[in-house]
Structure to design on (311 residues):
């Protein structure tokens, strides 16, 4: 084997062969063919190239080298979401009235924009950490875009304003802080009661199936989702008509394109090929389905308030 061939074997297993082993066979085989041809031109036997291609990857990540290897550092949720340092909550609290007095008229009460731009999405704000990017803009303004200067604000005051803005980014971006509200400010329970009596009382009763429903779904969001589209249908009742014309009613034990099984009131399970019978399944959600395109936001909020009162 030539010296050049020896250098090929020393260099190419780590530069080409080992990376190729992580590819699919579609990418790996043509690559191996090129390596073998190159090796042949340099006097390296095919068997030697193939043997090298099958050697274990000694340059695998540290985490894959055995129990004694050092585990890679665990990334925090903040790092994963790219949020940067956590905002100074105390500074944001006393910075809030300063922001609202000087900035909210243009940028909105929560920095999401009004006449001025949305600061929650501002690249300058996202690059800022302790007010170092925001302070010059606040102090000097931006005449070209109509933003006035605020030279009267101290560095400490601007720091508080900056931290309040950073807190708004945190509240929007950090999903770990999301929570459902336990209160609902919109909706009228009396109007909800009138809507219920007009559209829902045919199938439901506040003293029957809906008695005490507020205790079951105390959160407004859960109640709203439940009334708009119930998540469970319960057992499916069905009527099966046989080829002879005989009809059997019971609870569906199984139903697909190939086989239908019905459990009768006597507890007996009857099974037929689906193609040989007619299966009628009442749609328990037909009423909800019909109302979905008709609901207004006010209807849903009024109904929710009414149902939340049924404790």
């Amino acid at each position: 084997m030539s010296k050049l061939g020896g250098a090929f074997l020393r260099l190419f297993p780590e530069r080409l062969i080992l990376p190729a082993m992580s590819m699919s066979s579609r990418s790996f085989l043509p690559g191996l063919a090129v390596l073998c041809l190159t090796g042949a031109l340099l006097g390296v036997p095919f068997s030697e190239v193939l043997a090298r291609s099958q050697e274990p990857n000694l340059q695998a990540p540290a985490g894959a080298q055995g129990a004694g290897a050092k585990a890679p550092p665990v990334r925090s949720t903040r790092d994963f979401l790219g949020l940067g340092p956590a905002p100074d909550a105390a500074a944001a609290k006393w910075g809030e009235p300063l922001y609202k007095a000087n900035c909210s008229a243009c940028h909105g009460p929560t920095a999401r924009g009004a006449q001025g731009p949305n600061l929650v999405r501002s690249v300058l704000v996202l690059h800022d950490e302790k007010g170092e990017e925001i302070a010059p803009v606040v102090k000097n303004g931006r005449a070209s875009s109509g933003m006035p200067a605020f030279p009267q604000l101290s560095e400490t005051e601007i720091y508080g304003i900056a931290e309040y803005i950073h807190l708004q980014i945190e509240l929007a971006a950090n999903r770990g802080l999301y929570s459902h509200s336990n209160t609902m400010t919109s909706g009228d329970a009396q109007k909800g009661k009138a809507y219920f009596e007009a559209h829902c009382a045919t199938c439901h009763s506040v003293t029957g199936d809906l008695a005490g429903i507020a205790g079951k779904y105390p959160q407004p969001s859960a109640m709203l989702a439940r009334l708009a589209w119930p998540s469970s249908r319960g057992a499916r009742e069905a009527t099966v008509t046989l080829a002879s014309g005989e009809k059997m009613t019971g609870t569906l034990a199984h139903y697909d394109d190939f086989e239908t099984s019905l459990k009768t009131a006597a507890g007996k399970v009857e099974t037929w090929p689906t193609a040989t019978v007619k299966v009628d399944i009442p749609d328990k959600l037909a009423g909800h389905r019909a109302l979905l395109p008709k609901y207004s936001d006010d209807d849903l909020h009024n109904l929710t308030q009414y149902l939340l009162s049924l404790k």
Summary: Confidence is low (pLDDT under 50) at residues 7-28, 49-64. The radius of gyration is 35 Å. The chain has four domains: 3-61, 89-177, 189-232+286-308, 237-280. The beta strands are 237-241, 247-255, 259-264, 269-273, 278-280.
